[in-house]
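Quick question, first post here. What does this chain look like in 3D?
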Amino acid sequence: MFETHFGIEIEFSGITRKAAAELVAQVVGGNVLGGYNYEIRAGDGRIWKGVYDSSVEACQKLGGRVAAIHNDDYQCELVSPILTYHRDIGTVQTLVRKLRKEGAIAPNTAGIHVHLDGANHTPQTIRNFVNIIAAKNDLLYKALQIKGERQRYCKKMDDYLVERMNREKPRTFEQISDIWYAGYSGGRDRHYHNSRYHFLNLHSFFTGNHTVELRGYNSELHAGKVRTYIVLSLALNHQALTQRNASSRRAQAENEKFAMRTYCNRLGLIGDEFKSCRDHLCEHLDGNGAWRFGSVNGRSARLVELEERDNA
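> Answer (accepted):
Ran it through. Tokens below.
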């Protein structure tokens, strides 16, 4: 799971791209190059970027409040080089903490995108990924609290696409590509193709960088939540790669916290190492994480209900 290569894009405002680039250079070493968009070549030769992003609302902290401003120097996106979890997660978290301390802000329009190496994917595992995201649509959107301002950029999986994918069972990437782009006009080679604006973006897989992109994360300058987004992305990717088949059926989640906790266990996010990840993913969900049907004086509410029915 954690050997997969990935990249992360973090959108933010509050400070200028130049200030952000200089901060990155302090953390990873190297010099800042550029004058509008910036590149930082780290000591290991990898390149980080601080680039303009038109979708980010420019804002700044003024007099103890956050105010919108008209200055595109504050419309920022940090783009990482190719990363691996154990080698680089500490650097990513350090950068997030320092950006926040410097005054960076995550506006409602800003997001975080995680790109996952697509080299090991097959047509079957891509179908698996589509079905996994479709099955968990509602639970993930609530757990991640995807803001309304951002949902145009990370729509839920299209029901027609999912239905057609499972009906036709494509066996080649070309066949999957035809289903993915069905109904869209314009050339498929356009970078900003409208098909990309989904929680799971396969446009990036079918074009140059051959990555699977997960776009369903609000921008955050909380290092623990950013780590959670990376861990979840790697885990979802690993499930798609290793599961023989995946269903798009949405299981009834009468107890959302229990559903998420058991799903985290299935993904391998167990033990103290991932406790904070589980906490972040369950924070906004309803229900009881310990008991599927809640509890009564520490006992399963479902068991109590069955006992009362038997004694009636």
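The chain has eleven helices and twelve strands.
The first strand starts at residue 6 and ends at 12.
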